[in-house]
Amino acid sequence: FRRLKDGLARTSSRIAEGIGAIFTKRKLDDATLEELETLLIQADLGVETAEQLVAGLRRERFGQEVSAEEVREHLAREIAKILAPVARPLVPASRPHVVLVVGVNGSGKTTTIGKLAKNWRAEGKRVIIAAGDTFRAAAVEQLQVWGERAGVPVVSGAPGADAAGLAFDALTKARTDGADILIIDTAGRLQNKAGLMEELRKVVRVLKKLDPAAPHDCVLVLDATVGQNAHQQVEIFGDMIGVTGLAMTKLDGTAKGGVVVALAERFGLPVYAVGVGEGADDLRSFDATSFARGLMG
Ligand code: GDP
């Protein structure tokens, strides 16, 4: 919880300072509520969520004197309610449980896969990683480093090898080895949307030949620093192959952590994990109350 709070420091200091400036012994009136709404929109909570939060505060406290502290507490409570339904961990239910990881290049896919592998390994699970972005040599190498560190085998192919073929081989190996979880990295070249879609769909098609229920999860990795652009990425990848949950990265490096609330409100997708740093231990499970409190400082 402490680390999550630290990780959100940039977002929370912006919101908390803003609220402090608005509510210095002032009555809750139209002007202060308007300012608060603007502040929440600036922190990427989204227009609808900001309106809804402000309307709630208006109903409860309009015309009364409120302290910044009370406003922060009220908002943290309401935001926790919005986040509670999406705070669901990724629970492997099949064996092997196939997790396809998608997202644009640079979003933190490789790092998140490494952290997930390490966490599951630490829980005693048998994990295999498939380096499915065969065109990015750097990504394959990075995964190998993460794999070595975590004691997790990494299945890779020749540079430019067919991603679907690699996924097939990896799932075959996962079944033979009795692995609990297979994590498959994928390409993230969004500049060639049609090509990417075809590649991802082929991976899914081929996996289904071995297990009709695979992939059991499709995790979209989203860089929180992109703010509102995250909405578009959810739509694009959702249309391409369907997304079952999100991993939000780089919350430590942004004042845009509020986007998680906006995404929860709009898409209702589970947030499986949040990244608050580059290190192996910097992936947190997502807790609604901690996150909401972290956001409000
Ligand atoms: P990919 O291209 O999607 O595979 O992205 P990478 O996993 O290579 O990550 C891109 C950069 O973001 C790397 O420098 C990572 O160390 C960094 N990164 C990933 N997750 C986080 C995070 O939660 N916090 C911070 N600060 N950096 C991160």
TrEMBL record:
The protein's GO terms of the molecular function aspect are: GTP binding; GTPase activity; signal recognition particle binding
User: Any idea where the AAA+ ATPase domain is?
Assistant: 95-247
Supply the EC number(s).
3.6.5.4
The UniProt record gives the binding positions of GTP as: 103-110, 185-189, 249-252
Q: Where is the SRP54-type proteins GTP-binding domain?
A: 96-297
Its topology with respect to the membrane?
Answer: Peripheral membrane protein
UniProt-listed InterPro entries: AAA+_ATPase, P-loop_NTPase, Signal_recog_particl_SRP54_hlx, SR_rcpt_FtsY, SRP/SRP_N, SRP54_GTPase_dom, SRP54_N_sf
* Residues covered by the Signal recognition particle SRP54 helical bundle domain: 4-83
- Location in the cell: Cell inner membrane; Cell membrane; Cytoplasm
Where it mainly occurs, coarsely classed, is membrane
Q: Which UniProt keywords apply?
A: Cell membrane, Cytoplasm, GTP-binding, Hydrolase, Membrane, Nucleotide-binding, Receptor
Q: Which Gene3D superfamilies match?
A: P-loop containing nucleotide triphosphate hydrolases, Signal recognition particle SRP54, nucleotide-binding domain
Lineage: superkingdom: Bacteria
A cellular component annotation (GO) from this entry: cytoplasm
Reaction(s) catalysed by this chain's protein = GTP + H2O = GDP + phosphate + H(+)
Q: Which family does it belong to?
A: Belongs to the GTP-binding SRP family. FtsY subfamily.
- State how it assembles: Part of the signal recognition particle protein translocation system, which is composed of SRP and FtsY. SRP is a ribonucleoprotein composed of Ffh and a 4.5S RNA molecule.
Q: What does this protein do?
A: Involved in targeting and insertion of nascent membrane proteins into the cytoplasmic membrane. Acts as a receptor for the complex formed by the signal recognition particle (SRP) and the ribosome-nascent chain (RNC). Interaction with SRP-RNC leads to the transfer of the RNC complex to the Sec translocase for insertion into the membrane, the hydrolysis of GTP by both Ffh and FtsY, and the dissociation of the SRP-FtsY complex into the individual components.
Q: What is this protein called?
A: Signal recognition particle receptor FtsY
Q: Which organism is it from?
A: Stella humosa
- Lineage, top ranks: Bacteria, Pseudomonadati, Pseudomonadota, Alphaproteobacteria, Rhodospirillales
* Record gene name: ftsY
